[in-house]
Amino acid sequence: MTTTTIVPSTLSADFANLGRDCQALEAAGADRLQWDVMDGTYVPNITFGPDVIAACRRMVGLPFEAHIMADRPEDLLERYVKQAGCEMIICHPETLGMPHRTYHQIKEWGSRVGIALSPATPLSHCEDVMDLVDMILIMTVNPGFGGQSYLSSMEQKVTRARLMIEASGRDIELEVDGGIGPDTIAGAAKAGANVFISGSALWRYDSFEEGIVDLRARADAARQDMD
Ligand code: DX5
């Protein structure tokens, strides 16, 4: 069974104390952190530039992944790798002028490649680049904000993505993002996900550690039922 990875989204963090929250999440057992990068154009929200993430990079040892929700982000991506220290760059294919070229460039920089699919974006965007992909991210909300309701209708898409990954024979992670919490993580896990983003639900627990332990246990239990 592939390992369960719990990835807090810093979108729910205290923006006045980002470094402190990153350190608390590391101490609580998070596997890595996701930075939701929003440009106010592709999604109606603006969040983290590379300088902000770089400031937090110096404060924790956790791997960082950058979920880029921005139109034509190609000119910025190198700074998220080299300045902000993100070891994975996740893009929405419809925002890229030449996706294959961008994915190849990300690998050249030594970072890993994620493909994020919004609810209406088809899995076919992954079909011809599976040799370059390290992770498929199935959005279980429409991108732009935390705290939205989980779209259980995306579970069939998660399962189809899992079948695609198995057919590829490659070690590709399958991540879900949006509305993931104690009541939804089991469904996403049963559908085939093994990497789970949590923002608002994680911040609702009494402690980060309690949340990470509970979410991981729920995902593991759901996935063991499948074996
Ligand atoms: C949407 C964001 C959110 C975030 C997680 O663009 O990508 O999905 O990471 O937020 P919650 O867990 O609060 O839905």
Summarize the structure.
The protein is an alpha/beta fold and 227 residues long.
What features would you describe in this structure?
The structure is a single chain. With about 230 residues, the chain is α/β, with parallel strands linked by helices. The protein has a single domain, classed as Aldolase class I (TIM Barrel), CATH 3.20.20. Helices cover about 40% and strands about 20% of the residues. The protein contains nine helices and eight strands. The chain has an eight-stranded parallel β-sheet. Helix 7 packs parallel to helix 9. It starts with a strand and ends with a helix. The structure holds D-xylitol-5-phosphate. D-xylitol-5-phosphate (DX5) binds next to strand 3, strand 8 and helix 8. D-xylitol-5-phosphate binds next to strand 3, strand 8 and helix 8.
User: Which CATH first-tier class would you pick?
Assistant: Alpha Beta
CATH topology type? TIM Barrel
Mean pLDDT figure: 97
* Widest beta sheet: strand line-up: 1-8-7-6-5-4-3-2
Terminal Cα separation, in Å? 8 Å
Spell out the CATH superfamily.
Aldolase class I
Number of spatially distinct domains: 1
Q: What form results from the Cα inertia axes?
A: globular
Q: Radius of gyration, rounded?
A: 16 Å
Give the second-level CATH assignment, the architecture: Alpha-Beta Barrel
Low-confidence stretches at least 5 residues in length (pLDDT < 50)?
A: none
Number of distinct helices: 9
Largest sheet: 8 strands, parallel
Beta-strand residue percentage: 15-25%
How many beta strands in the DSSP annotation?
8
Q: Helical amount among residues, as a percent range?
A: 25-40%
The quaternary structure here is single chain
Structural class: alpha/beta
